Amino acid sequence: MKMLKTLGLLLGFSLVSSLAQAGEGLKWYSDGSVDLITYQDREVIHLSKDQLGTMFGKGKQPFKGKKIAITVNNSGPKGGISGPLYRLRPAWEELTGAKLEIVEMPLAEQLSKTMFDLRMGSNQYDGFIEGAWYMGEYVTPGYIIPIDDYIADPGFPQWDPDWFPPSLREIHQWDGKYYAVLNDSDGQVLYWRQDILGSKEWQTRYKRDTGKDMPHPPQTWQDVIDIAKYFDGKNWDDNDPDPDDGIVMHFRVNEQGMFHFMSLSASFVVMGGDTVDRGTNNYWFDPDTMEPLINQPGHVRALETLYELSQSGPAAQAAWDLGTAWDWFLRGKSIFVFSWGDVGSLVQDESRSKIKGKLGASVLPGSYEVYDMNKNRWVRMDKPNIAGNTTGGSWQGVISAKSKNPEVVYSLYALMATEPVSMWNVNRGWTGVDPGVQIHFLPPVGTASVMGYLKEDFHERDLFYYLDAYHKNFFADTMLPYLRINGTEEYWRALDQNLSETMIGRMTPQEALDSTYKEWQSITNRRGKARQLKQYQQSIGYRH
Amino acid sequence: MRRAARVKWIFILPASLWVLAFTVFPFFYGLYLSLFNVQFGVEDQFIGLGNYTRAFEDSRAHNSVIITLIFVFAGVSIQLVLGMLVALLVNRPMPFRSVLRALITLPLFATPIAVGFLFFTIFYEEGGLINGLLGVKIPWLSTPHFALLSVIIVDTWQWTPFCFLLFLAALQGIPEEYYEAAALETTNNWKIFWHVTLPFLQPTVILVILLRVTESVKVFDIPYTLTTGGPGVATQVLSMFAYRAGMRFFDFGYASAISFMVFIIVMIMIFSLFGRIRQSFAGSEREQR
């Protein structure tokens, strides 16, 4: 009898819990708009009827009974990029009637696991939240599908590709067609300690000690080196009694160190203009011959600059990953870091950061001298050559060509890309979703509300620096072209290993880039030069 | 009789299928792949021994061979000596001996991936456990020599207990009469160890070398988690090199060729060591007769 009672209680409890769970993701209004209620935090994101798309409405659930599986980096329910999927899953499931399986994978394994799945035909996954450099691997064998028809369909949640700056639009497309939906916007900018560099006292001391005005904010990489050298080894703040560093970077091999080089080198290498050719709006290969350009004098000088700059950072950074380098800056141990948008929002998190309200940021500095790869000579500019970048993953949703439910997958991505959801993500640093498109920036250049950011505890001055830096980066006239052809991972890893050898002093910059040149030639030849060349031309928009 | 024979085959069948599916087939498929240039989205291209000749010309592959050999030689030597020393120490009456033995074997049960991450924090250069305790800044993970040393230390920490267990078992199998007889001749412990203990341990020494070398040549998890093969390529062992070629760059033909070369190296070592074991066992049998 007692056992029956217990069973009854358990059944009752599970019934009540399931009832409580049903309907907990949405709240409908009479005008057809809806509140999406996030999982666990129970925060509210309001979508108008127009934003929601005509396919969805109270009780409609157009994809009832369907199930999709999406791969994403393994950061967990409260981690970057994967976190938003967990938060929005109950709302999306209730809206569509479909089920979402989130398949987390380590960053290093995501490409290989998904490619194996596609190649072997097991087709376990319907979509991937991919790094933009995977696109060539997926598109060229036809493993993912274009989404232009879905974007134009008013039935789906509404987002607008016109929000993209040209730089980000390019990495969501392949040969003029959209394959990826807006989610994250990656690019590196320069962050610094504004409380130190902006202080009259430190500026006076700098002039007294060096005989020069402090070049603040820094306009060129030489300015950054000068400031970093000056502050390196001094205990310039009161966070701890130990000496601090001028800069911090992450060079742990086989991770993300090569991104530092790419971003920094752009201003020594990339010349803007209306055309694309070997020496204009180009960086990686000769678009006529597929000859690697990585050991050209501009690239070499950039690596020499990076090496010199690294000497003002902690010696241990040769083995540091991204998170460790970020923490060093957040703990107030370095004047500079150049990195992704996550830093700007992580600075606001006082459980991790000691520098909230002390942040300065700008587009990456430039170089007065740029190497013209058409004329094979250095060109002296009147003002520093500033090159924006989309360095990083810009983690974006793509749909598997093998998926039986591509429209269901798109509905999820599109919901995440709607203005209210995208802003919700960008306002919160932990989501890993960084600002980059028009709706994320403040007027007059964008449409975002400053209150949205301030409500999430952004410090107002930090915020203005942060958004201004990112706007100038993504909307820069000259951009570092993005490599995303077949084998990008292999090209980048070869570069990364040689960079790491440079940072530990086993190779000179020239030797490292000469070695990279040889390895890249070998990779190209093995993968088929004609095929690689065609992809490269397509990916950078080169026309004969 | 005929029915009994049939039953015999039924019992053998599952194991045979298992070996065919998961050992024989992958082996020959790997061998087949190593003769091709294999890429996603492109038809496989037969290149004969091209992947093997490429390995001979690839400076990165050479580096990995050297790193692996240093790791194997240094790691196995240290583990062998330490394991024997600890076994000799513990193979005598002392308080809490069984507890001590259990504690010594604990690292064996840790997952290598977790061990790698654990030691990553221990070797952390800015206030990690070791540098913090010593009050120095040893560049454990950011300089090539220290990084390789760190990997060897972690591997030694994990696998010395294994050597210890085998040596302890061997020590306990040495008849007490030999020591009693030796004690009549000399009181020098070193002489007793050299002329009595070590000859009895010789088969175990060879066995430990055999098992540890074959395992160490395949090491992957500890350098993968602790150093990711760096800095530079200072700790990129052969397995990691093959993994990256196959799983990161989808260069399956080359990865297979590298794996086969590792396989051949391991087989040569095994056969030569087995030869030594046979000789050594034959020798001890003769002595016992």
Which helices and strands, and how do they pair?
The complex is a heterodimer of chains A (544) and B (289).
Chain A: H1 2-21, E1 26-28, E2 34-37, E3 44-47, H2 49-52, E4 67-73, H3 82-96, E5 99-105, H4 107-120, E6 127-130, H5 135-139, H6 148-152, H7 166-172, E7 173-174, E8 177-178, E9 189-193, H8 194-197, H9 200-210, H10 221-231, E10 245-247, H11 258-269, H12 297-310, H13 322-330, E11 334-339, H14 341-346, E12 359-362, E13 367-372, E14 377-385, E15 396-399, H15 406-417, H16 419-427, H17 450-455, H18 460-474, H19 488-503, H20 509-527, H21 529-540
Parallel strand pairs in A: 4-5, 4-6, 10-11
Antiparallel strand pairs in A: 1-2, 2-3, 6-15, 7-8, 9-11, 9-12, 13-14
Helix pairs in contact in A: 3-15, 11-12, 19-20
Chain B: H1 2-33, E1 36-39, E2 42-46, H2 50-57, H3 59-90, H4 97-105, H5 112-122, H6 129-134, H7 144-172, H8 176-185, H9 189-217, H10 221-226, H11 238-248, H12 252-288
Antiparallel strand pairs in B: 1-2
Helix pairs in contact in B: 1-12, 2-12, 3-7, 3-9, 7-9, 9-12, 11-12
What does the model show?
The complex is a heterodimer of chains A (544) and B (289). Chain A is of the alpha+beta class and 544 residues long. Chain A is built from 21 helices and 15 strands. In chain A, strand 2 and strand 3 form a beta hairpin. Chain A is globular. The relative contact order of chain A is 0.15. Chain B is mainly alpha-helical. Chain B contains 12 helices and 2 strands; from the N terminus they run H-E-E-H-H-H-H-H-H-H-H-H-H-H. Chain B has a two-stranded antiparallel sheet. In chain B, a hairpin with a 2-residue loop joins strand 1 and strand 2. The longest helix of chain B has 37 residues. Chain B is globular, with a radius of gyration of 24 Å. The two termini of chain B are 42 Å apart. Chains A and B meet through helix 4 and helix 19 of A and helix 11 of B.
